[in-house]
Amino acid sequence: MNFFPRGIKATCIFACLLSGLMGMRALAEPIEQDTIEAAMTLQLLGFTEWPADEAKDPAAPKTIGIVNSEATYLAYQSLLADPRFKDRFLVTRITPQTPHGDLYRCDVLVFSEPDPTEIPRLIKKLEERPIVLVGSFEGFLEQGGLVNLVKKQRRLGFEIHLGNSKRRGIEYRAKLLRLATRIVQE
User: Fold this and answer.
1) pTM over 0.85, yes/no
2) Topology of 33-184 in CATH?
3) Distance of alpha carbon 168 from alpha carbon 131, whole angstroms
4) For residue 5, what pLDDT band results from cuts at 50, 70 and 90?
């Protein structure tokens, strides 16, 4: 008898493998928070659905833009070397000087640090575009973010803002929504 749906089973297996890897690496060196958040984000994106776009090939890798954080960019780069993610995602740096065209080609933007001027500017610029905005700090959903990674009692979880997501045409599978620590409906 199968107690877990296939997607949840795969997520649990990945979490166990990541925990085992963390345990083995803990003996040699601690795993950075950026790496853990990147791994969790990549898993979350596997349960995320973007609206159909005639201009984009649905089989093409999703582009993840990392906003102003070298450590986060390097964490994603190292994880994307893994064959499970290699052909599914690409990563790029996003700075205030990034041209609009490059910014609009991103499917995901990751904000790892609060920036009271840059984040509202980017969110306003990308309003109504099907881009998943992922943050990892308090108040990100209230600023217009879609997914926020939260750490509570040494555990990493995530929150989802369904109102912001629906405005952008982003949907999440029910399996992912059941695992969220908080869902904002609006």
Assistant:
1) no
2) Rossmann fold (3.40.50)
3) 7
4) low
